[in-house]
Amino acid sequence: MAYVLFISENKLKDSTAITGNVDVEFILPYLKVAQKKHIERVLGTDLFEKLQSDISGSSLSGVYQTLVDNYIQDALVHWAFFECIPFLRYKVMNNNIVQKTAENSTPLSRDEATDLREEVRNTAEFYTERLIEYIKNNTASYPEYSTNTGADISPSKNAFYSGMNLEKVRDRQEITLRDFLTPDLDV
């Protein structure tokens, strides 16, 4: 079976700053990476493969259609953009990797590109959090969400890759500010 994507090239270009001038051959590898790396991680292998099967068989409908159209696609377009940003300015040639330039434009500095990528990540994480919350509140509609076994990827309930983790860890003593203060600075 050919690799099945949850979004089209047009959806990606219509939903991000990627213009029509960018070739689909350039975007496709990063779209695949984003779908495997970020979407399968959230859905788990069984639900991910069920959706791919339904799409390839033209039988996607009902709650599965809602999941793809209203939640997965929003997260995936931004993750795909996130994955391709570092490579937009470079082209791999037979004998070298070159930096592309245009006559009427100035390329972003590394810091500007990093800032842009962070903003895209924030948007992707927002939509991923929406996706996770939707599935958690509708698990009865998606039985494949909890059937992963063996080498399957089990669904992750965490949308965020960076920043502070504020989840409460069970069976562990709570760490407070007092743990880091010396007796003379006690609050």
How far the N terminus sits from the C terminus, by CA atoms, comes to: 63 Å
Helix/strand structural class: mainly alpha
Q: What's the arrangement of strands in the largest beta sheet?
A: 1-2
Specify Rg, calculated over alpha carbons.
21 Å
Helix content: 40-55%
**Binned strand content:** under 5%
Query: Using DSSP, what is the number of strands?
Result: 2
Could you walk me through the main structural features you see in this protein, from its secondary elements to its overall organization?
It is built from five helices and two strands, in the order ααααββα. The chain is 48% helix and 3% strand. The chain is mostly helical. The model has no long low-confidence stretch (mean pLDDT 83). It is flat and about 55 Å long. It has helices spanning 9-15, 24-43, 45-56, 62-84, 110-136, and strands spanning 90-92, 97-99. Strand 1 (90-92) and strand 2 (97-99) form a beta hairpin. A two-stranded antiparallel sheet has the order 1-2. Helix 2 packs across helix 3 and helix 4 runs antiparallel to helix 5.
Helix/strand layout:
Layout: H1 9-15, H2 24-43, H3 45-56, H4 62-84, E1 90-92, E2 97-99, H5 110-136
Antiparallel strand pairs: 1-2
Summary keywords:
187 residues, mainly alpha, two-stranded antiparallel ribbon, 5 helices, 2 strands, 3% strand, flat
